[in-house]
């Protein structure tokens, strides 16, 4: 009888193990399928961490995702999903349970809220930048440089008292798993159970490692897609947005202005007497001037503005939430900066210096369509030319 009882016990344990493995594979399959629905990086990152934290996913309380910035040799916080306090945690979990939200529901909720994660936890994660050259004081740097997962248990976490993450988030136990693509670590996922205090098991680590392996490839594909997209929208000479992107962006920003009932201005900038410069000195020096001027316009524009090369020697700036009066003040400052800036061989020009003329149109007073705003700013630009150049008409 004891032998039969032992066999039954073994079969029960085997069945439980098979059920757990089946459930784990189903979760990974669903997360993997969700990642294949988009190539947009922000959506990919959200899907990954939703899979880590969802009750129908890996079930961690909180998760953070960091990406390697090779140019600056740092690892940067990109997204954090999870509550900031125990009260917030209980509220979120109760809402999810009440609405019976599955993984697909949670991902769709992100799209419905316009991809804006409004949480204190996410804000804290986004502010973190850790140098990669000091793995003695940074768990993130250690994970990237060694390429190995780390389970910081309550017994071992005390060895990392100088780590900035532990100081910010007061973590008692944490899983740290690097994401790899083509044998290179591109980022790190961190997860913990700050509120339930549930211990992180070997199965938890194994699942997180498998998810991280899929995530690394998905992120790399997304980055390659975004690089290609940026290249297709960028002017090869100046590095500014090109004419095609200007047109599509203007339509987008105009629709936003109409929806939000806000102002929008379009600024057209044209180099005065550039044909004389090109014909006299050649197109190579002309291209050099275009690149210098592009740097100046970009450098003195606001981060919120879209600075574009419209074509030839003409530039355009889309200025959202900007009235005509505000656009004029910005344009006048830019015109004066360009007038004072020394350019090579500008003495051959009629006024002995390189200058620009500017036309400004604004929504809604000058037009309610993209084409009408472009036409009106172009009309004012040529009016500025006829009035003697080096001025703004608006």
Keywords:
11 strands; 394 residues; alpha+beta; 2 domains; Alpha-Beta Plaits; five-stranded mixed β-sheet; Beta-Lactamase; 18% strand
Give the count of structural domains.
2
> What distance lies between the first and last C-alpha atoms, to the nearest angstrom?
97 Å
CATH C-level name of the largest domain: Alpha Beta
| β-sheet strand percentage | 15-25%
In CATH, the architecture of the largest domain is 2-Layer Sandwich
Biggest β-sheet strands, sense, barrel: 6 strands, antiparallel
Blueprint of the fold:
Blueprint lengths: L1 H34 L5 H13 L8 E8 L4 E8 L4 H14 L3 H10 L7 H7 L2 E3 L7 H8 L3 E3 L11 H6 L4 E8 L2 E9 L9 H32 L9 H18 L3 E8 L2 H8 L1 H17 L6 E6 L2 E7 L3 H17 L15 E8 L6 H17 L5 E2 L1
Parallel strand pairs: 10-11
Antiparallel strand pairs: 1-2, 1-6, 2-3, 4-5, 5-6, 7-9, 7-10, 8-9
Helix pairs in contact: 1-2, 1-8, 2-4, 2-8, 10-11
